Structure formats: structure tokens, C-alpha cells
Amino acid sequence: MPNTLVVDNLCKNYGKKQAVKNVSFTVGEGEIFALIGPNGAGKTSTIRVVSTLLTPSSGDALVDGVSVVKNPAGVRKLITYLPDEAGAYKNMTGIGYLNFMASLFAKNNAEKNEMVKRASDTCALGDRLQDKISTYSRGMIRKLLLSRAVMSSPKLAILDEPTSGLDIINALEIRRMIKQLAEGGMSFLVSSHNMLEIEFISSRVGIINNGVLLECGMPEELKAKYSAQNLEEVFERAVKGA
Amino acid sequence: MNHFFVLLKKELKDMITPQNILPIIIIVVIFALLGQFIGSATESAAKNSQKVAVQDNDQTPASQEMLAKLKAEGFELVTIQPGAQNTVEDAAKEGLNSLLAIEKGFEQDINSGKAPKLSLHSRLTSFSVLAMMGASATQNAAEEIGKILTAKLLAEKGITDTKQIENPITLAEYTHVNDKTAQVSSGAVQAIAMSQTIFVPIIIFMIVILASQMTATAIANEKGDKTLETLLTTPVSRLSVLFAKMTAAGIGSLVMSLVFLIGFSSYMGSLTGSTVSGMPANTPQVTGGDISAAFTTLGLSLNPLQFVIIGIELFTTILIALAVSTMLGAMAEDIKGVQTAVTPIMFCVMIPYLISLFTDISALPMPARVFLYVIPFTHTFTATAEMVFRQYGLITFGVIYQLLCLAVSLYLAVRLFSSDKLFTVKLKKRKNAKANAAE
């Protein structure tokens, strides 16, 4: 499986604080790779570096061979990013938002319309797309944003806590959407502190704590390695053993 | 697709919300109503400018002669019954706030060589300009009676040509500006100049404050909703995002300023126009045409080049405010913190604005001048006066200094937008911010 993302010895410092310490991992094509760890572990910093919002202090990340250090503009053509608890422009309608975002990715109107159609089908919000986003529930906004994140068919979709704050039904729907899209060949880098959710959707996981990637592998492998029932137990034992 | 225009369209759409449009509509309506009210009030005051309430308590041929001569001079007399108790209230019923009473013994005093007594009663209901206009007409009537009496006394002494005694001097008023001179009262020139130039600082003040708040709010809003993070990971340059925001805020503030300008013009126009027409007939007046000619003669009218320079200073001021507010908005903790974040800009605009309204900044002591000239916005407030009074050194310094400030603030804004600091720097709790950014 060719690698869509290669993270190589990535470090990110904020002043004297080292938020990410020599993190390395890969994400293959059509793979859902999840970074799991508690709040403040370094997940979001890693994700922000890969999504070109932050520059690494050292190391690099290559998306489809394009470096976030040398060519961040090139990387942005290959990725989409959904921040944790992100909102959308409340004064816009759902369809207006999709049109606006598609205009930033598409080269022409035909491509834009195709993207908007794909997003409309993915989010399945139907007629509600004509309503203002300010009238949407949290789950509807998340679906809209997720459909926005995948409408340009990126090589790598980066999702930070994709289901945080959602009820069970909405969270399940979002997870199914991610799985379906991965089956279609799209790669995902997902972060979450909800390890049970990650076990459900991810192909491989990376356990990160205090900026250090402690473990990396398939959930089943890790569970077997630590003789654990679930990823939460894997995490607990990996952290204790670190 | 042109990303900048896509972003600009979105920014402009963001601004066209009921919350933003409603205040503009309210302002226009308020100014229109104020203008109408002031217009009708001044019109009625002007109508009353020659109307005088008189009470003849002497009822003699001499007092009646006086009243007849006042009528002949163009005064419209409203007679209040002699001996009435509430004379001022009676005058008020006629729409007049003052009354001139010819007291008992008026004729007797004249005949016995004493100064006859007149009483002027004014009913004070407010301190407004319009309220004062009625009283001045009554005062003019009293002065007119004095003149009539002087003429009468001189005639009795055999002096018939009283003009020279009434006006022993001929005062010619000249106003000098730089090396130019015009025969016009400096008071009249100042009054008209002030009524015209008062708009400039008000508009600058409005534009800078509105533009700063709009930009800072837009940035803080996007940061809070994390839509900025989303935008900055799309194939759009960060500078496009930055300049689209600044351009939209600039357009928005210019539109709002235009509304303010139209509203203020209508309001001030009704006020100043009626004050001139409200002057008593015997007050020496300078007509609009004379003042206009005097303005040109004195070089007080700005030429196109001077307008362009003022325009450059105004535009530079807006851009500086936009660049600084972009940085402050990016550093605001949240949307609530925007007001606090833009406070430094508000102070930097308010201080030179108020001082330039009340005094000549170039005449202040050196430390005060240095303090004010360090604020880049000051130079825009003083530009018109410097232009008129040919302080070319100050103008040149102002333009160069402002362009320098603009270059520095734009450079810093671009640096902030191009760096990690956009997501890690906050105005308060920097240590916490770094810790937060770590996750």
C-alpha cells in the first residue's frame, strides 16, 4: 500500500515547551490512521503541522511526497482539515457554504458544481441545505463540515475529534461516512481521545502521550501485545510502561 | 477561480447582516428627522426674527411715535396690553420669548432731559442657539429706539445730519491668510470654515473606529469558530485571506462613513443655513457669494492636488488602522475581547481628534506636539489646516511618517498572518496560550 502521509521525526516546540517529540508514522492510501491520547498529548499540534497551520521545529511531513516545510502551498492542494469543534459561517446557507468552500478548491465552475453535488449527497441534509447554518443543530453542522472536508476528494483528510460533542446517532453516522469514504480510497488522519470510537473506525492507531508516540499498529495487534480488552487498556499499559 | 474575490465576496456578505444594516438605517432616519426638525424650527425662528412683543405702559404721543417708527424700520410689533401682570407669558402665547416694555414716564423723562426707561423681559427656556435668536430681535428694537431718540435730540439741537454721529467710525474688516488678504470679517470666515471643516475629523474618526472594529471582530470571530483554521488549510494564500478581510472592512467603513457624511451634511446644512437667514435685518451680513469669493481670495479653498494629498493621508490612516486591528483581532482572546483589543486604536484616534477640534496642535508646547505627532492618525486630522496655512514641512513629514507607519504595520500584520503566532499569540495569559497551543 503506497503511503499518502509520511511523518518523519517531527518536533514542535512552543518556546521551551516540547509539544511533539520526534514523532514518526505513515498513513497508507485508503487507510484511517488515528492518533489517540489524552488532552495535551500533542495530537492537535501534530495535526496542525501536517495541515500546514504550524511549521515544525524540526523533522518533516510529506503528503503524497510533498513536504509541509518546503512546499506548504502544494500540500494544501492535497489535504483538507476539519478542526475540533469547528463552526461554519452562520450567515450563510448550507449550500452557500459548500459553494464558497468549493470555489477555493475548484479550478472552474463545472468542477465546483461537481464538488458541491458530492458534498450535498454526502451530508444528506436535503432541503435543509437551503436554510441558514445558524438554524442547524450541532450534528447537522458536523455533517456539513465533514462533507465539505471530503468534497474535493483530497489525498488526505485530516479530522480533529470528528465526533466530539455529538449524540450517539450523529456520531455513528459520521463514523460510517468516514469508513465509506476510506473504502473509496481516501486516506484519513484522525485524532480523538475517544479510544472506543477509534477502535471502531481506524485501520491503525498511534498512541501519543506527552508529545511522544508510544505505540503504532493495528488495534488487534496492540490489544494482543498488551493483553488488553480494548484500546483504553492498551493506552493505560503503554503509558505505564513508557 | 480568483480566490481573493471569492473571499472578498464572502467578507462583504458577512457584513450585510440585519445587525449591521439596522444601525445604518436608524442613523439615516435620525439624521433626516433631526435635519427636518432643525430646519422647521429655524425657519420659524427666522420668521420671528423681526417680530417683537411690545408693551406701551406710557400711552403718550412720544411712546406711540416710537412704536410707529419701529414699525417703519421693519419690525413687526405684537402689542401686549399695558398694565398686564404676566407680560412674558402673554408674549409667549404669541410665540415670542421676550418683550420690550416702554415704562410709565417715558415722555416726561424725554421732556425733562432724563434718560427714558425701557424694560426688556426675556423668558429663558433653554440655552440653545435657536432660543437666543428671539431675544436678539427685541434687543435690536431697544437699540433702535435709542437711535431714534438720539436723532430726535440732535434734531432739537439743530443738527439734522445725524449719520456721522450715529456712525462716527467706518470699520473695514480685513482677513489675512498667509500672503493673501480679503475684505471680510475673520469671524465670518472662521464660522463658515469651521462648519465646513468640522466634517473632516468626524468622518476620519468614524471610518477609523468602524474599520478597526469590523476587522478585529471578523478575525476574532473566525478564530473563535475555527473557520480561520479551515480557510488557511485551503489552497488559498494567507495574504489573500488577510487582504480580503481588510478590503471588505475598508469598503464597509467607507459606505458607513458616506452615510454619516450625508446625514451630518443635511443636519449641519439646516443649522448653519438658518442661522444666517435668522440674523436681524440691520445686522451687517456677508452673503454666501462674498464668503465664497473671500475663501478663494484667501486661498482657503483647497485645490485638486491638496485634496489628493488629504485623500492619501486618509487612505493611509484607514490602512494603518486595518493592519493594526487585524493584529489586535488575531490576538484577542475571543469575540468579547475585541472591544478591549481595539481600545489602543480608539485612544490613538480620539486624542488627536478631540485636541484638533479645540486647538491648533502646531501651537502646543514641544512635548505635547511630539506626543501627538507620534500618533500617525494625528497628521490626517491636521492635514486640512496645514494645507490651508501652507505648513508644507509638516504635511511632508506627516505623509512620509504615515507611509512608514503603514509599511511597518502591514509588514507586521503579514508576518503575523504568515507565522505560527496567528494561532499561538494572545494579548493576555501568554503562558497559558502557549500551553493551550501545545494541544
Automatic annotation (TrEMBL), chain A:
Record's protein name: ABC-2 type transport system ATP-binding protein
Keywords: ATP-binding, Nucleotide-binding
Every ABC transporter domain range: 5-235
GO MF entries: ATP binding; ATP hydrolysis activity
SMART domains, alphabetized: AAA (SM00382)
TM stretches of this protein: none
Taxonomic lineage from the root: Bacteria, Bacillati, Bacillota, Clostridia, Eubacteriales
Source organism per UniProt: Acetanaerobacterium elongatum
Pfam families (alphabetical): ABC_tran
TrEMBL record, chain B:
Bilayer topology: Multi-pass membrane protein
Keyword Membrane (UniProt): yes
GO annotation, cellular component aspect: plasma membrane
Record-linked Gene3D superfamilies: abc type-2 transporter like domain
Domain ABC-2 type transporter transmembrane: 24-409
InterPro entries in the record: ABC-2_transporter_component (IPR051449), ABC2_TM (IPR013525)
Cell compartment(s), UniProt: Cell membrane
GO molecular function, one term: ABC-type transporter activity
Entry keywords, A to Z: Cell membrane, Membrane, Transmembrane, Transmembrane helix
TM helices/strands, residue ranges: 20-41, 198-220, 240-264, 307-332, 338-358, 370-389, 395-414
Primary residence: membrane
Domain of life according to the entry: Bacteria
Listed name of the protein: ABC-2 type transport system permease protein
